[in-house]
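INFO batch 0412 | record 1 of 1 | parsing
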Amino acid sequence: QLQLVESGGALVQPGGSLRLSCAASGFPLDYYAIGWFRQGPQKEREGVSCIEGSDGSTYYTDSVKGRFTISRDKSKNTVYLQMNSLKPEDTDVYYCAAAWRAPCSTRNYDYWGQGTQVTVSS
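INFO prediction complete | emitting C-alpha cells
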C-alpha cells in the first residue's frame, strides 16, 4: 500500500515561491506516475503537473508552464513541485496522486495524499 504525504503549502504574496513535497512510503516511486492536482471550493479538480515513473518525462498544464517545475528525488522517494511567480489564481488545495505503472495521461490514480493549502494573497 502506497502512502502519500504532501507538505509545503503556505500563505505567500503574489510573485513569491513555494516548494511542495509529496513524500511516498510503501513502494518506490519509480513504478508510478505522480501527478499534482489542485482544487478549490466549488471548482473542478485540475491536473497541474505530472512526472512519469518510467523515464521521468514531465508535463504541465498551460497555466503553470514556465512557472512550476516538477522533479523527483529517488533517494528520498519524494516528488517536488517548485512553484515560482505565484499568482492569486494559484490559490487552492494541492494534492499529489500516484498511478501504478501508468502514463501521466491516465485518468486512474490509485493513491492520493491529504492535500496541502496554498494561498497567494497580499
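INFO post-check: The CA atoms of residues 5 and 22 lie 5 Å apart.
INFO record closed
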